[in-house]
Amino acid sequence: MYLCKNEMASTTSAARKHVEKIRKTKFSIGGKSNPLTEDLHQAVKNLSAELYAKDVHFLMELIQNLVFILMDAFTTHLMFLFSLLVDP
């Protein structure tokens, strides 16, 4: 599908307006600033700093996730073998 120059220009213009609207309303770029933006920034910064403050905590999370994955796989295989024994 090909657009003529006028259609392409209006499509490009509409796209630019849409992006500008998102920049202003969502991210306060080029418009009036949102007073809560700085608070939100600090909250995210504090949360990310405290979430994995210690490397040990991060490693424990990884190990826990691995254990859950292995348990799920083992349970699936065990149920399959049991179904073969019960209903040959």
Commentary on this structure:
It is a single chain. This protein is mainly alpha-helical. The protein has two domains: 1-51, no CATH class; 53-88. 80% of the residues lie in helices and 0% in strands. It contains three helices and no strands. It has helices at 5-27, 37-51, 55-86. The protein is flat. The chain starts with a helix and ends with a helix. The model has no long low-confidence stretch (mean pLDDT 79). InterPro entries: Auxin_embryo_med. The chain crosses the membrane at residues 66-86.
List the helices and strands and how they pair.
Layout: H1 5-27, H2 37-51, H3 55-86
Give the biggest beta sheet: none
| Count of separate DSSP helical elements | 3
Encode the helix/strand succession as letters.
Answer: HHH
Low-confidence stretches: none
Q: What's the total number of strands?
A: 0
Strand content: under 5%
- What is the overall shape? flat
The average pLDDT is: 79
Number of separate structural domains: 2
Q: Distance between the terminal alpha carbons, to the nearest Å? A: 59 Å
Keywords: Membrane, Transmembrane, Transmembrane helix
Briefly characterize the structure:
Helix content is 80%, strand content 0%. It has helices at 5-27, 37-51, 55-86. It is flat, with a radius of gyration of 27 Å.
List the defining traits of the structure above:
88 residues; mainly alpha; 2 domains; Auxin_embryo_med; membrane
